[in-house]
Structures are given as C-alpha cells and as structure tokens.
From TrEMBL:
<dbReference type="InterPro" id="IPR035919">
    <property type="entry name" value="EAL_sf"/>
</dbReference>
<dbReference type="InterPro" id="IPR003660">
    <property type="entry name" value="HAMP_dom"/>
</dbReference>
<dbReference type="InterPro" id="IPR001633">
    <property type="entry name" value="EAL_dom"/>
</dbReference>
<dbReference type="InterPro" id="IPR029787">
    <property type="entry name" value="Nucleotide_cyclase"/>
</dbReference>
<protein>
    <submittedName>
        <fullName>Putative diguanylate cyclase (GGDEF) domain protein</fullName>
    </submittedName>
</protein>
<dbReference type="InterPro" id="IPR042461">
    <property type="entry name" value="LapD_MoxY_peri_C"/>
</dbReference>
<dbReference type="Pfam" id="PF00990">
    <property type="entry name" value="GGDEF"/>
</dbReference>
<keyword id="KW-1133">Transmembrane helix</keyword>
<dbReference type="Pfam" id="PF16448">
    <property type="entry name" value="LapD_MoxY_N"/>
</dbReference>
<dbReference type="InterPro" id="IPR050706">
    <property type="entry name" value="Cyclic-di-GMP_PDE-like"/>
</dbReference>
<keyword id="KW-0472">Membrane</keyword>
<feature type="transmembrane region" description="Helical">
    <location>
        <begin position="7"/>
        <end position="25"/>
    </location>
</feature>
<keyword id="KW-0812">Transmembrane</keyword>
<dbReference type="GO" id="GO:0016020">
    <property type="term" value="C:membrane"/>
</dbReference>
<dbReference type="InterPro" id="IPR043128">
    <property type="entry name" value="Rev_trsase/Diguanyl_cyclase"/>
</dbReference>
<feature type="transmembrane region" description="Helical">
    <location>
        <begin position="144"/>
        <end position="170"/>
    </location>
</feature>
<feature type="domain" description="GGDEF">
    <location>
        <begin position="264"/>
        <end position="397"/>
    </location>
</feature>
C-alpha cells in the first residue's frame, strides 16, 4: 500500500475517532443539560397551571380554555388534569410535534427523556386535582442533531485540508526517494544517474548523498575498467603509427570472416608501399612515417566512401596494408580500386614519395571455406605481378562468375518477388546458457531464399545485392513481420538482426517499429540486434533503445570487438546483451591474449550487469574456457548448425 493511501486511511480513522469522542463527550453533557431544562420547563408550566386552575377548577369550560392556551403555546407532549378523589381525567391534551428532520436512529441513539412536572390544584384547603405536564424533546433533539452535523463537517473539512496539505508536503519531501528508485532502476538498465540538487530534509539528504556516492563509485569503477580494457585492446590489436588494426587483429578478423557461413564471400585488397627501406634511407624516418600515415588516411576515406565503413582495414607489416571487404557487388570493388589508383598518384605528385608508383596493390576474391594462408598467398602473388609490371594493381588470379545468378536485373526481380510475397525462409540457431544444462536462452533468426528448384540460397549470396539495390530497410520490415507471424505459434524468445539503414533516422525507426506496435504481446519475446559495424551515432542508439523499451522489446549488439571504444557508451544504452565476435573466440583455449581480452571484457560488462555471449563456439575447449571465465551464453556449431525454424 502506498504512503498516500496510508495517509488517507489514517486521516479517515483519525477523523472518525475524534468525531466519535467528540460526540460522546459533547452529546452526553448536552443531553443532561437539555434533560434538566425540559424538566424545569415542565415543572414550571405545571406549577403555573395549577395556580391558575385553583380559582376555576369547578368551571370545566374555563379549565379547558386555560389548559388549551398553555398547551398551544409550547412544545408539550401531554397535559393532563386528574380529579384526586375519583382519579377521573378532567381534561387531557396530547400531541406529537413534527420531528424537525431528525433521523429516527439519532433519536434512539440519544434517548433524551422528556421533562415531567406535577402540581396540585387546591379547593380551599382541600386538594381537588392533580396537574401533569410532559414536555416534548423535539427542540432539544433538533439542536443536538444540527450540532452533530456542524461538528462532523468541521472535523471532516479540517481533516481533508490537513491530508491535502500533508500530501503536497510529502510529495515534495519524498521526491528524492522517487529519484532514488529511478537510480536503482537505471542501474539495472546499466545507466548511472545522480541527483544534483540535495533535499533540505537532513534525513533524506544523507540518503541521497549515499546513493549518489554509490552511483558515482560504480560509474567510476566501470569507466576505469573500460579504459583499461580499451588500452589493452589498442596495445594488442592496434598499430601505434597509423591507428589502424595490426597484423594480429587482421588475422583474427580474416579467420572469422572465412569461417562465417553467413558472409560466404568477400574481397581482400593488399597494398604495399614501394621501396620502404630506400625511402627510409633517402627521406628519413619522419617523412616515411608521414607517407605511411597518408596511405592509412586515404584507405580510411575509401573504406568509408565505397564500403560504408564496413570490413577491416589493417597495417599488417611495414609498408603493407590490407582491407577485408564485405561481400559487395563487383562494380563497387572496381570503383574502389579505380579511386585508389588515382589517389596513389597524388602521393608521388605531392612529394610524399620519390618512387612512382608510390604503392601497388592487388585484389583477390575469397569465399567461405578458403583458408587465410591460401587467400594471402593469392594476394601476395598478384601483388608481386603488379610490382614486377610497375603498375598500380594486378587483376585477381581467380575469376569471378558473371552468370545469370549475379545479373543485376535477375537479382532485382528475385528480391522484389521475395519481398513482395514475404517469402523468406526462416532458419534459426539456438543460443545456449554457458553451463552443463544446455538451457536455450533464445534463438537467432537467419534469412534464406528458396529458388524454384528448391535450392536454399544463404544470406552471404544475396545480402550484397540487398545493400546495393537499397532494399535493406524493406527486408528488415519483411523479416520482422515474418518473425512476428511465426512467434504466434510458439513461446520461444528470438533475436533478429537489422541493418543500420533501418535506424538511421526517426522516420526509418518508426517504419521499422510499426509491425511491433501491432503485435505488442509478442515484443517482450523478441530482441533486435545491430551489427557493431552498422551502429548509428550513440544518440540514435539511445533513441532506438527507448522506443523499443516502450514496446517491451530489447536491443543487442553482435560481432562486438572491432570498435572497442564503444564500450564506454554501454551503460547509457541499456542493451539486452553483447555478442563477442567469433574472431576472439576461435582457439581461445590455446591463445592467451584472447583469453585475457575476453576476461577483461567480461569483468567490465559485469560491472553493469550486461550479459556477454560468445559467437560461433566450435570446440569443447573453447566452451570450457568461456564457462570458466563466466560468460552468460554461447552459440555455434559445437551446439547446433542453423536449421529451419520451427516453434516449440
């Protein structure tokens, strides 16, 4: 029961007790007083009437006139004159005056006895008659009743005003308690809030100061832990000169990319600065470092322009740089390599290098199942041919199939048909809790396309065309509708990936959430996921999280690990979970640096109670290490491959 309800009940009980006590004390005294007055009134009337009748007792007409005159002039219940000798009633008048709107229950409760008076009428020295007068308590009852009503209204009004004033005062005094509740709730959402204005009440001030100190301590502890992990991450996986990823990070991401059957294919672009040793000798180390930094800048710009900041850019050794490009259509890669050739010319023209061309590069395509060694060897061979021919680039040694399956119009028609019919094939992969009980936390929904001949096309083949044709938002909405429709048949908790384009602005978010608004009863069993590389600005994520929570839906991040500086924003987002990229999970039982990184990440997320889930666990040893660290969940081929989604 709330404090305000208790206050109202207490005020009502207080009013009732005071009222009952007041009625008992006041009414008892008033009843005694009125009884005495009524008795005196009846006795005085009887005495006066007895004296008046002494001279006229033998005249019945006069006696009746005198009795009637007195009876009609006051509130009397009865006046009776009785012959003393014969006990015969000479004259009697009775009347029951109106009750003056006094309730019968009140009359019975007060039980006010009427006043009674007697007098003797003399005939000479002989007693002739007896006069009996009984007053009616109507007037006294009316006064008592109106006094009771006035007392009740006064006490009720005062109590009501008191409760209202007390409620207003308490609302102001207890407002800090509401904020303390909000602080505790925010901590559970992995947010840290402090109350800047302290209350004036000393007791509440101490409570608020203590909670502010606790929240500030938690926030500082998390920030310190996040800063340490970010430093550790940069030292282990970043190149200090260019700020790009180093060879260790490149190897991890390339291995992860090649083993991910959802990506299926991609490109590796390998670039090497020409005559790096000679440049150091001729131009000096400082100018050579500027050249390497300039190469890093132009590669960053090209990655942002042609790959939407997706993929991996790294400096793998000395003057060698590499880009792991996501599965995009060949035309985009052609545009990128053309722009890169043009940019490399400017390095020689501006004097950053005295070698022309300043750098050479090669591009090779890869697909799911290739080994990192094979891909790197092909790229290195192509790069050697480019350097031998003194040209910017070399054509890939592997040919790309340019058949009808990769035709622009063919894919446009196929995707338009699937989107229009909402006929994606739903596959799922379970996510298990990291323990021996094999408890399923949720199922990750995956998209497939079935051709007319029954072939299942994985996402890695059609997603590049989805992005190229600008169909990402439509696909997200269709997949959300199909997922919600499938959820009607079961009770599983599901996770569904969405693209960054669907949350880029308010209009896109509102369009995406429209199916959820029409199925609010299912929203609490669904969590949307964003790829780390597709995250919008932090303020957009905050807006998205609030809108999703209003519907009962959550938001998670998958493939986490490449943009580790985002960990500082995790407390304010209130995510459902964080899924670590498989590159940091592969062979974690054999590589100590990965274990240290995951341990540090786990302890940072534990400070804000953020569940950490490992992606693509493939061996018993990997799972054992993750369980020893304390991760919340895991998914991967060790448990199950993706299969056709069926509700349980």
């Amino acid at each position: 029961m709330s404090l305000y309800k208790k206050l109202v009940i207490g005020g009502c009980l207080f009013t009732a007790v005071i009222f009952c006590g007041n009625v008992y004390v006041t009414q008892e005294n008033a009843r005694e007083q009125y009884h005495n007055q009524l008795s005196a009134h009846a006795q005085d009337t009887a005495t006066a009437l007895g004296l008046s009748l002494t001279a006229n007792i033998d005249d019945p007409v006069t006696t009746e006139l005198m009795v009637n005159a007195i009876f009609d002039s006051g509130y009397f219940y009865r006046i009776r004159v009785t012959d003393i000798r014969t006990h015969q009633v000479l004259i009697e008048r009775n009347n029951v005056p109106p009750s003056a709107n006094v309730p019968g229950w009140f009359v019975r409760l007060v039980h006010l006895d009427p006043g009674r008076g007697e007098a003797t009428v003399m005939r000479g020295w002989t007693q002739a008659a007896q006069v009996e007068v009984i007053s009616h308590p109507m007037f006294a009852l009316s006064r008592l009743w109106h006094g009771l009503l006035a007392s009740f209204l006064l006490l009720s009004g005062c109590s009501l005003v008191f409760m209202l004033l007390t409620a207003l005062v308490l609302r102001g005094l207890l407002r800090p308690l509401d904020f303390i509740v909000e602080q505790a709730t925010a901590i559970s959402r992995r947010e840290f809030l402090t109350l800047p204005t302290l209350p004036r009440t000393p007791e509440l001030r101490r409570v608020v100061e203590a909670t502010n100190m606790m929240v500030t301590g938690l926030k500082a502890r998390f920030s310190e832990q996040a800063s340490r992990i970010e430093t550790l991450h940069e030292e282990a996986y970043s190149d200090s000169l260019t700020g790009l990823k180093n060879r260790r990070a490149f190897d991890i991401r390339l291995q992860s990319w090649l083993s991910d059957d959802e990506r299926q294919s991609g490109y590796l672009l390998l670039l090497r600065v020409q005559d790096l040793v000679g440049l150091n000798q001729r131009l000096g180390g400082a100018r050579t470092d500027k050249l390497l930094q300039a190469v890093a800048v132009l590669l960053n710009e090209l990655q942002a322009q042609y790959l939407n900041n997706k993929g991996v850019l790294a400096r793998i050794r000395g003057g060698e740089f590499a880009i792991i490009a996501p599965p995009v259509i060949a035309q985009q890669m052609d545009n990128l390599t053309t722009a890169l050739s043009r940019q490399l010319e400017s390095l020689y023209a501006t004097g950053l290098s005295d070698v022309s061309p300043a750098a050479c590069f090669a591009r090779v395509a890869f697909s799911h199942g290739d080994t990192p060694q094979t891909v790197l060897m092909q790229a290195d061979q192509a790069l050697t041919r480019a350097e031998t021919g003194t040209q910017f680039t070399a054509e890939p040694t592997t040919t790309r199939e340019d058949n009808n399956s990769d035709d622009h119009h063919h894919w446009l028609n196929r995707l338009e048909r699937v989107l229009g019919q909402e006929s994606f094939e739903l596959f799922s992969q379970p996510v298990y809790q990291c323990n021996k009980q094999k408890i399923i936390l949720h199922r990750k929904i995956l998209a497939r396309i079935k051709t007319d001949n029954g072939e299942i096309i994985p996402a890695g083949r059609f997603m590049p065309w989805v992005h190229h044709l600008g169909l990402s938002q439509r696909m997200d909405i269709v997949m959300l509708r199909q997922t919600l429709k499938a959820m009607e048949k079961g009770t599983d908790h599901l996770a569904l990936s969405i693209s960054g384009e669907s949350v880029a602005d308010d209009a896109s978010i509102n369009a995406l959430l429209q199916p959820l608004k029409q199925a609010r009863h299912l929203a609490n069993r669904l969590t949307l996921e964003l790829d780390e590389n597709a995250l919008p600005p932090p303020e957009r994520i905050t807006v998205l999280v609030h809108k999703l929570k209003a519907l009962g839906c959550g938001l998670g991040i998958q493939h986490f690990g490449g943009r580790f500086h985002l960990i500082g924003n995790l407390p304010q987002w209130g995510l459902a979970w964080l899924k670590v990229d498989s590159g940091f999970i592969r062979n974690i039982d054999q590589e100590e640096d990965k274990r240290l990184f995951i341990e540090a990440t786990y302890w940072a997320t534990r400070q804000i109670n953020l569940p950490l889930i490992a992606e693509r666990v493939e061996t018993e040893g990997e799972l054992q290490v993750l369980e020893d660290i304390g991760l919340y969940g895991a998914m991967g081929r060790y448990f199950n491959d993706a299969s056709t989604f069926t509700q349980s």
